């Protein structure tokens, strides 16, 4: 049987730096666990634009559709800020999400014990935190039509459209309810039904799917602005949060800080099952290309490493190996190994991106 296949799209900025550490871990699984992946690499984002004049070449898109999963680093950077909107690096990632139909974006926010002191919130607020944000990823205001910058009279007007169909809401709701059943059986749905018709429909459909198919799951609804406040006030009240594309983007960056750093938050973007029964999938850290620290060996690779752990679990049915990798990360943090973003006001000596990767590999060795 063919080895499971992975397409690596490291992208821009710190993307290739954090992905280099994931490649070490893929090498470790091959050498030490006999788990061999067929890995291919290609370009996405600004680096693809530099080479092909487009942030995602059609051949790359076709490869992404064929592999068992895609691992992505990050895209974007100031060099590309003034490009035409249609070829901006971020469009490459949005095209991947849309054409692979990756409608369910799982963004777990877990506070490792070793980092509970380090969060910007009080220790008792974040210690033991373990929540998942399920973000709708292929619709809503990031994709709705009409969109654009137009001229009306003597001024410009920028338009984006929030649009959700019933079936788009229903499928991501199911994904959240399924996730809750595997966890603590609680879903909180967030929208702005007080001011948006799309929010009213969102609330109705989530409630209907709940009542018909998941009556055993505890469901609550919250306006997304209040949800943002509650995430900071007492995040442990949540188990699974389901929300739309834009609110999910904002709420998950906020949730990242509960865990200590944006450099800690992984994600899985999942679609419909393929012929092999596993979902179409792309795994990426929640953070971006971090141009302020790119090229300096300062980036925290843990979000990217934990995204690979999610790939082991969701794309390769290797839940035990995913847990092994997550425990290796936990061990390294408990030993006090820290990249610069995890340094508190008391200071200390941060390790480089590469040294963090090496420490995780050493912890994997110690797990054997
Ligand atoms: N999925 C993706 O590829 C995403 C791409 N972007 C793009 O990235 C570029 C920069 O965007 P920003 O708003 O600055 O967001 P960002 O997430 O790249 O950076 C925000 C802040 O967090 C820090 N940070 C992020 N990841 C880190 C890591 N692994 N280790 C240590 N520190 C880390 C950065 O240094 C920066 O201070 C933009 O072009 C944006 O469009 C932004 C978000 C997601
Ligand atoms: C296309 C991305 C740059 C948008 C984003 O911030 C994200 O998906 O987290
Ligand atoms: Mg974001």
End-to-end separation in angstroms reads 26 Å
Please give the order of strands in the largest beta sheet.
2-1-3-12-11-4-5-10-8-9
**What series of H and E elements makes up the topology?**
EHEHHEHEHEEEHEHEHEHEEHHH
- Helix content class: 40-55%
Overall 3D form: globular
Count, helices? 12
Give a list of the ligands: 1,4-dihydronicotinamide adenine dinucleotide, 2-OXO-4-methylpentanoic acid, magnesium ion
Average pLDDT level: 96
- In total, how many beta strands? 12
β-sheet strand percentage: 15-25%
Low-pLDDT regions? none
Structural class: alpha/beta
Gyration radius (Cα, Å) is 20 Å
Query: Can you summarize the main beta sheet?
Result: 10 strands, mixed
EC number: 1.1.1.85
Subcellular location: Cytoplasm
Domain Isopropylmalate dehydrogenase-like: 5-360
Keywords: Amino-acid biosynthesis, Branched-chain amino acid biosynthesis, Cytoplasm, Leucine biosynthesis, Magnesium, Manganese, Metal-binding, NAD, Oxidoreductase
């Amino acid at each position: 049987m063919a080895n499971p296949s992975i397409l690596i799209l490291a992208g821009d900025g710190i993307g290739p730096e954090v992905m280099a550490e994931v490649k070490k871990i893929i090498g470790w699984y091959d050498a030490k666990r006999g788990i061999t992946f067929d890995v291919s690499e290609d370009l996405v984002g600004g680096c693809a634009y530099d080479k092909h004049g487009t942030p995602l070449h059609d051949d790359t898109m076709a490869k992404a559709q064929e592999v068992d999963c895609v691992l992505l680093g990050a895209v974007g950077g100031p060099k590309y800020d003034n490009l035409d909107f249609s070829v901006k690096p971020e469009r490459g990632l949005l095209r991947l999400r849309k054409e692979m139909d990756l409608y369910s974006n799982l963004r777990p926010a877990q506070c490792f014990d070793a980092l509970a002191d380090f969060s910007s919130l009080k220790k008792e607020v974040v210690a033991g935190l373990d929540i998942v944000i399920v973000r709708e990823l292929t619709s809503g205001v990031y994709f709705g039509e009409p969109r654009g910058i137009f001229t009306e009279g003597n001024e410009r007007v920028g338009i984006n459209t929030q649009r959700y169909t019933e079936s788009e809401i229903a499928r991501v709701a199911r994904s959240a309810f399924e996730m809750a059943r595997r966890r603590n059986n609680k879903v909180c749905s967030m929208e702005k039904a007080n001011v948006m018709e799309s929010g009213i429909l969102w609330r109705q459909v989530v409630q209907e799917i709940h009542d018909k198919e998941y009556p055993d799951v505890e469901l609550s609804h919250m306006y997304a602005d209040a949800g943002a406040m509650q995430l900071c006030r007492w995040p442990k009240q949540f188990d699974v949060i389901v929300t739309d594309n834009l609110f999910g983007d904002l709420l998950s960056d906020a949730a990242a800080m509960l865990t200590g750093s944006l450099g800690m938050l992984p994600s899985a973007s999942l679609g419909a099952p393929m012929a092999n029964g596993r979902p179409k999938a792309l795994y990426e850290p929640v953070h971006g290309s971090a141009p302020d620290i790119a090229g300096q060996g300062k980036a925290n690779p843990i979000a990217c490493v934990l995204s690979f752990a999610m790939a082991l679990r969701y794309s390769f049915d290797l839940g035990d190996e995913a847990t092994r990798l997550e425990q290796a990360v936990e061990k390294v943090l408990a030993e006090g190994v820290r990249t610069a973003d995890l340094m508190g006001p008391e200071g200390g000596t941060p390790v480089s991106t590469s040294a963090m990767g090496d420490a995780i590999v050493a912890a994997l060795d110690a797990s054997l």
